[in-house]
Amino acid sequence: MKKFDYFQPETLKDAYSLIEKSNGSYIYIAGGTDLIANIKNRLIQPDALISLRRIKEISGITQNKDLTLGSMTLLRDIEKDSHIGQNYPALAQAVKILATPQIRNVATIGGNLCNSAPSADCAPPLLVLEASVTLEGPGGQRSIAIEDFFMGPGQTCMNMSEILTRIRITPPGENTGMAFLKVGRVSTDIAIVNAAACLTMEKNVCRKCRLSVGAVAPVPLRLRSVEKMIEGQEISPELLNRAGKMVEEEVKPITDVRSTSGYRRIMSGVLIKRAIEEAIRRMEQNK
Amino acid sequence: MTEYSYIGTEAPRPDAPDKAAGKALYIHDLVRPGMLYGKIKFSEYAHARIKHIDTSKAEKLPGVHAVITGYNTPEIRIGFIRDNFALKKDKVRQFRDEVAAVAAIDPDIAEEAVDLIKVEYEELPSVFTPEDALKEGASLVHEVDTRGRPKSDNVVPVPWKFVAGDVQKAKQEAAFIAEDHFQTPLIQQSCLGTAGSIAEFDLNNNLLIHAKTQIPFLAQNDFNRALAAMGLKGKNTRVIVPAIGGSFGTGLDTHSYEYISILLAYKTGRPVKIVFNREEEFTALSPRQPPKSHIIQGCDKDGKLTFREIRMILDNGAYTSWGATTPSVMMLPISSLYRVPNVFYETKIVYTNNTYCQAMRGYGNPQGTWPIESNMDQLAEAAGIDPYEFRMINSNIPNETSPMGLKISTCGLKECLKTVAEKLDWEEKHGKGRSKARGVGMASLLHVGGGARVYRSDGTGIIMKLDDFGNVSVITGGVEMGQGFDASLTLASAEALGVTPDKINIISGDTATCPWDVGTHASRGAFTACNAAIMAADKAREKIFHLASEHFMRRVQSKLKKQKKKDPDFEIPDLDYERMFDPSEFDMKENYIFLKGEPDNPLLRVTLEEILRAAHYKEQGTMIATEAFYDPPNENIDPRTSRGNISATYSFGTQGAEVEVDLETGKVKVLQFVAAHDVGKVINKQTIMGQIYGGVVMGIGYALSEEYKTEKGKNLNPNFLDYKILSAPDVDFPIHAECIETNDEKGPFGAKGVGEPGLVPTAPAIANAVYDAIGIRIRDLPITPEKVLAALKEKKD
């Protein structure tokens, strides 16, 4: 492993000034569960790491009108938060089965997003919840929809000096149910496919549908055409089958050491169907 | 039935607290004064000629003490047929070939130095499947054999063949026949503790090596041979085995990295440590061989097996380890699992440019049992007989010699089968769950349970040394590698000697101080060491009782006098003092020596430590240290006839699974698992349960998820991110482990070996359950959701 310097600034401003001095050879580090592995595997060789761990303002969970998650919030803290468990079960479930307890004790939600793996488990729930993320840098701050954040495997819309500081979620309205599902080879695994659904129902008719599937394209996908097809319809087995087929056509999975593109394609359809069913069941349970 | 004080109890493992608390010292924890860190430069090709190695830059790097290659060190030949070299010259035959190595003051510098070594190669055509390797004109992995004679093909000169009866005739006469092809993938042993060694020389050029090995004394022999090759003939090796985090067969051979640490230590005059990281553990250690089997079995109209024919082809990889002898163990189930009179078995082992293979838990038995037990279900179906009934009809029975010459003494197979059928509710469930995609399946095993005469000796030594305080050092040649060896030996020693288990200290893992042993393998650890412990304990008891005849009376008299002093009303009883001079009148239990028949009178018993001190602190005194060497009554397999009673007794078992298949995802979910094992006798209940649970979970991983994937000889998943073993959350179903006690007279207290059996029949039990659930027969492991889904689709079309 190449040696590197390590900084622990306590304010965003200090972090920016460090990175601006570095000419692109420094990078930010959150929990480090992916980043350190990448350094060890020599995929990246930074001269220095700037840890965001001591910057208090970007950590923690607050619920006012919206739910705000500091980017440095540990996955373990999200998992343990009863309010999130109650009101955002798709996110709670994604975090609960993400890697192992040891990893969740150091990994952060911001890190999971900034790593920008197509299989990031936090992405599908945030996509169906239509979360927004705040990016801050020396040049100021901007807020963008999570959907516009991912650009490709390991690539986001952020520039080198920007920091993802907050994730904001507006609570979904009444009669809404949501679910997150994942297929792995064993219990503790990177997703072969993961998926989330969030549906607002009026009796049997779906008023609003948000669907997302991960690990089957260069970025986690929102499935807009499938959503449109479902909205205004009664949820029936036929509709679900049609949705499943549509999903299979929308995804662009690859074959790798973990799975095949064919299997991933079929699974994305199956998971979306099941996620919709689960979301509706949860909504009915909450009534 | 004999009443035991400790045998069969749930005594906690003596090594557990230190291991759980992180205090046990593994090779990774050890630091020797002045120690350097070694690192190996591996090949970048599967098959290539080495044109030039430039080490100049590495040598100049500050902190580097030595850079070695095959060109500047003595040639050290290694391996089962000595076709391998510690460092490679001229050409590389697999990706993991060691072309150079460095020793440096820290691991980072060592790594940097390895990167600075530049090797020029000329790539050669490669062979990656045994079939391709056998083709006319295939590229030769080895151009010459170990004697330097030119080779004309890629066949490893270790053929295995077994013939009994007349299979051709039986084929013609059989009422029902089932035939199929099966295969298993490369499997990595997945030890939590990776491999490593620290070598160092004293100023007399004797070698001290801390090594992760299961065969310290055979390793001593291997290393002494290396010393001779280095011009140090007559010098000796002392092997010390630190705590081991799982070995599973990886420690049955000595490895290049160990010899490289020796060469580096000799060159630098410093201790040199080489420890593999996880990626190296995957890519530079040897996985379990992947055989392809063609099986045909037949039975008569009543369902009695009449013949079994198996032809197997094994991918050896580029060099030959002791793993090439695993077909001798595959021969056991092939010739003798269930009663079958006519057997034909032949296997061909073939060199390829893949990573070379090695033994793993089960020593070939899991690969042998996979086709047999999958095909047993197929034959039962062809014959229209329930698979459980079919197995009962053909079950082995006690006191019978099999066609291979295995003298089956006790045999609890029928009871194991019955237990599994009952626990799974077989009658209610088998063949009835298809509408819910649920099914049950079972498979059995036969394995060596009384040692295994693989080498000329199957012996093990024990020394029992007693101290002033009644503590007993049980010094053994066996190795604790996580399996619970110390725990079973503790209870057996305590029971045999008559002391409490807390008095027992197991000392192991040092060739200089421990008695000789052939190796901890073949499920022989507890069987052989506990038998040796009983022998050593008998000798110790004889000595103790002899000392008691000298000292007992005086100690008793002084006790009585003391009592009288305390209590004037106490009347000194009229005792038979004659008995106290007769060693044969004594017995010992729970650290107390007493006259036979009077264990409970506190005035008439003396502690072991009192007697020992009395023996030590007198003129012309004595001490107690006894030794025993146990070599089981078993035979080598005759290489000409492939016959021989390889083990003193045999372990049997049946495992059963209930599964549910998700028809949309293809995922096989285990709902419950039953493992019924003929263990002879439970020595330590906690340890044996650990062995069975651990075996089952490892077996289910082998069945459902584990696969060492390669592309053109290169491992694609050298980490636990992509090599999927099961972890605790995957075991969300009950495992009913049942120990059937058949009390074998050869076994210590009746016990048989159980280290390996837990994973032997697991995969076919699950595959048979999958077939029962959805009517699909998976023939190549692992049973992944992709394969199940593809087969379901094919079935539908």
List the keywords.
heterodimer; A: 287 residues; alpha+beta; Uridine Diphospho-n-acetylenolpyruvylglucosamine Reductase, domain 2; Uridine Diphospho-n-acetylenolpyruvylglucosamine Reductase, domain 3; Enolase-like, domain 1; 3 domains; five-stranded antiparallel sheet; four-stranded antiparallel sheet; 11 helices; globular; B: 797 residues; Aldehyde Oxidoreductase, domain 3; Aldehyde Oxidoreductase, domain 4; seven-stranded mixed sheet; five-stranded mixed sheet; 32 strands
Q: How far do the termini of chain B sit from each other?
A: 61 Å
CATH class of the largest domain in chain B, please? Alpha Beta
Fraction of residues in β-strands of chain B: 15-25%
The overall pLDDT of chain B, averaged over residues, is 97
C-alpha Rg of chain B (nearest Å): 29 Å
Read across the widest sheet of chain A, the strand sequence of neighbours is 4-5-10-6-7
Biggest sheet layout of chain B: 7 strands, mixed
The biggest beta sheet of chain A is recorded as:
5 strands, antiparallel
**What is the level 1 CATH name of the largest domain in chain A?**
Alpha Beta
Please count the beta strands of chain A (DSSP E, at least 2 residues each).
14
Question: Helix- and strand-based class of chain A?
Answer: alpha+beta
Percentage of residues assigned to helices of chain A:
25-40%
CATH superfamily of the largest domain in chain B: Aldehyde oxidase/xanthine dehydrogenase, molybdopterin binding domain
Any idea what the CATH architecture of the largest domain in chain A is? Answer: 2-Layer Sandwich
The CATH topology assignment of the largest domain in chain A is Uridine Diphospho-n-acetylenolpyruvylglucosamine Reductase, domain 3
